[in-house]
Amino acid sequence: MTSVTRRQFNSIIGVGAASMVVPPSLLGQSKPRVVVVGGGAGGATAARYLAKDSDGQLDVTLIEDSDTYTSCFYSNLYLGGFRTFNSITHSFGTLASAYGITLKKGRAVDIERESKMVVMADGSTIGYDLLVLSPGIELQYDSVPGYSEEDSQIAPHAWQAGKQTEILHQKLNELENGQDIVMVAPPNPYRCPPGPYERASMMAHFLSNKGYTDSTIYILDPKDKFSKQSLFSAGWEHYYPGMIEWYSPDIHGGILSVDAKAGIVETDFDTFEGALLNIIPAQKAGAIARTAGLADENGFCPIMADSMRSIVDENIFVIGDASIAGDMPKSAFSANSQAKVAAMTIRGQLLSSRVFPAKYNNTCWSLIALNDGVKVGASYAPSDDGTITATSKFVSQGNEDATVRQQTYEESISWYSSIVSDMFG
Amino acid sequence: MIECKNLLSIFVLSLFVCIHTSNVAAESSLNLSQLATPCLACHSVTAEKTGYVGPTLAGVAGRALGTDPKYVYSDAFVRKSEEGSVWDRNTLNDFLMNPQGFVEGNAMNYPGIQSDAERDTLLHWLLNDPSGDPAALKDANYSSVPEVQSILARTADVEYGEYLAGECLTCHQLSDSRGQIPPIHKLTRDYLVFALLEYQNGTRDNSTMQSVVSSLSDEDIAALSQVFARIE
Ligand SMILES: Cc1cc2nc3c(=O)[nH]c(=O)nc-3n(C[C@H](O)[C@H](O)[C@H](O)COP(=O)(O)OP(=O)(O)OC[C@H]3O[C@@H](n4cnc5c(N)ncnc54)[C@H](O)[C@@H]3O)c2cc1C
Fold it and tell me: What is the ipTM of this complex?
């Protein structure tokens, strides 16, 4: 950090006068244009921080395909009966009305990087000086043999929230006692590492609340371990004995095929039948980031750790799930944290405001059962090798008492309402 | 060169209106002598004195529950004491937040104290030997804690603090709604510094906060506390 002189109250009074000093390069020109693609955890935060902190000196446009944003985060709690669908669905209205962000509804299909333009599905183009991409993920349906996008209407993934969440919710509600659920968990890297296991907990909670304890949830996992595993396993044994069975590859031997209509998942070892299949395929960066040539061979986008700027194109920042953010998991918290670093860097470049060393944080809360919340998290900074690296980590302990678990759950409720207001105003 | 103001708009609005009054208002709500007045009506702060309605507060930190030899405890409290806990930050905190919730039927005639900041002020006092002349308490506040003092004496880089504040706002909302994650605006600067230092030294044990503060330097704390103390 360079040292700076103390800002006295008087200099703050000077805000108005100071901000009227327009740099010559901008005289007679329109304001610098920043375009954000994707109004989710990363994109909404980026747009809001860009607009809010630049005193109207940036022209901020947010391109979003959907009318409203239903968060994946807390969608499991909707399945468990702890939230309503409405409470996890949010509008973009305040971003326009209170922050002056231009909302552009529609799908971005390409980026002309030479001429710095976003091409929309209707053929129109939107020019930018700097571009932020936060398109989230795209599911690789064919990573699960036999599964397809069409099948997701019957065997939902619900790994992008909205209609998919509703389908899964409805099918869960229609289940009868003794009918089973088969979940195929995704391979790394994917959004929300504890997500599939929180989902299994919430589905079990819902069923056991109804007295449907004869149903079993089979989790067929391509991974041989998972996030917060010991905490989840202990919770399952305690609250839902016999209801959740997790199989690693050395037990199921590999997923051979999914027949969504018949409700069958064939593995090397056995055939699993479920009245409800929840198939969560492998993931890559949202299509727009890959079409624009910003992703590596694994399908996600390498970035510079100190700014979230694409390694491929200096005029583009990639944040959220689409980016390769070192030690940071793909979470809403991470996306929100990355958005602030990107926004600060962009203002520095376009408006000559000061640029500070990047800092990142994440906490992922999960609910195992009523009032039993756990969390895992870390703080991060760019390291010398150019990746985002954890500087301190923590995880809930197995022996915590009920009060701590309840506090952790209540903390997550506070977090949800805070991050939503940090994203959408 | 443009003089870019990345002040949160809310800061800008509030600065003009509130900067003179806010600290005064907030400080008075954290005035220990005022907060302790109800306690001192019934509790002595020196072990020798007798004739008080309640047990002494002298040496309360680390003392087992229900063990002031000069005080006759309610049956409810005696039963609670049998659990074998001691008065520490957690038990005192729970007791002060909701005395009847902590021990139903206990004899303390006090409704509890809801504000985290106010409760923390009392806790700080209770845990650091509350003996001495209660009249002297009126000057007590966090800025007298040496570690706090040294941070308050630093230059606060407000622009930097505004950037850092983004880290806090993912979880701490700028509203008065009270959940498990408390609001951190409308507090005095010295209290904010004090609280952050307590996370750093492990006195406060929330793991998310401990992780976040582990990367905060004294300069960061000086900057952040200045920014949040200004938000009304
Ligand atoms: C079940 C589940 C539970 C989760 N729980 C948590 C949790 O508890 N905590 C947590 O921190 N995270 C959680 N997550 C992860 C979190 O949802 C994601 O990490 C986060 O949403 C990523 O933010 P993003 O901005 O990258 O993408 P998103 O939030 O998905 O936003 C992308 C947006 O871009 C839009 N978009 C995409 N492409 C285009 C285009 N070409 N043109 C126009 N618009 C486009 C989409 O419509 C979408 O609105 C969970 C995820 C799941 C699936």
Answer: 0.90
